[in-house]
Amino acid sequence: MQIARQLQEITLDLSGGSCVTIGNFDGVHNGHRKLIGRMMAKAAKASLPGVVVTFCPHPLRVLVGPHTPPFITDYEKKLDLLEALGVDLTLMLQFTRELAALEPEEFVRSILVDGLNVKELVVGYDYSFGKGRKGHFELLVELGEKYGFSCERLDPVIIDGAVVSSTRIRDMIKAGDVWGVRPLMDRFYVVRGTVVHGKKRGGRLLGFPTANLEVRDELVPGPGVYAVWVEVDGNLYKGVTNIGYNPTFGNETLSVETYIMDFDRDIYGWELRLNFVHRLRDERKFSGLDDLMTQIRSDVELGRQILDSQEAGL
Prior knowledge:
Layout: E1 2-4, E2 18-22, H1 30-46, E3 50-56, H2 59-63, H3 75-84, E4 89-94, H4 97-100, H5 104-113, E5 118-123, H6 137-147, E6 150-153, E7 158-159, E8 162-163, H7 166-174, H8 178-185, E9 189-196, E10 211-215, E11 224-232, E12 235-244, E13 255-260, E14 271-281, H9 289-308
Parallel strand pairs: 1-4, 2-3, 2-5, 3-4, 5-6
Antiparallel strand pairs: 7-8, 9-10, 9-14, 10-13, 11-12, 11-14, 12-13
GO molecular function: ATP binding; FMN adenylyltransferase activity; riboflavin kinase activity
Protein name: Riboflavin biosynthesis protein
Function: Catalyzes the phosphorylation of riboflavin to FMN followed by the adenylation of FMN to FAD.
């Protein structure tokens, strides 16, 4: 897959046209996958390159400011997921206030028509674009007739009686419902982080050494204890992750600590990927170390049983 951050970087031959879909695609969830899959099917039928247009930074970061919540996927992970779907070209446009101020027709003409030579366009059921988000599907149909491309709009994907959306998935992750998001995403929710030095209580006091993760600007599941698949240097291990404030010890900052089962290596400075499988319990304060150690042993055993039940891993 070719990645371009401006039209001038594109080397893919678009002289015969392209098939395009456009959006933020935060999470690349099943709704997005249906949209991209339809675009790629049309591209294959017409023997055209399949192109995804997305934005960096996310428009909310520009229009609302830095206080927007973390997103489901960072840009590196989003590009990996798009490549796995067979996309030929991802145009990751820099989103600016100047881009947001473009009138809908100017956006279509300059980016889609002049830039990508679009012949077929596929958009989601709620897609809008251009200054004041005045662009809509009916306008795209009109502009397609003017500039020579067709436009198709897809209905939303419904799972468990509700639309699959980035907002729904984000809310579920914040609530700790990591098992519930898997059918919406076709994968476990992943958090990446770098192993850093923590309080050194896990092994010394509790008998369960933990990897303390410094997490990037990613959405972290709500406080609690989780069964996870841990990716270390390309290998999978069973694990249990605690997210929270360690109330037994009175911490004031959120921590992400993972006990990796059947593992004994020095991994300070390494990047780990936590695939969240199931929430085991709430975080809570214990009366002392003995009660906490008993609960940790129970958590590890339950986590192992859950992960053993789906040994295929990811």
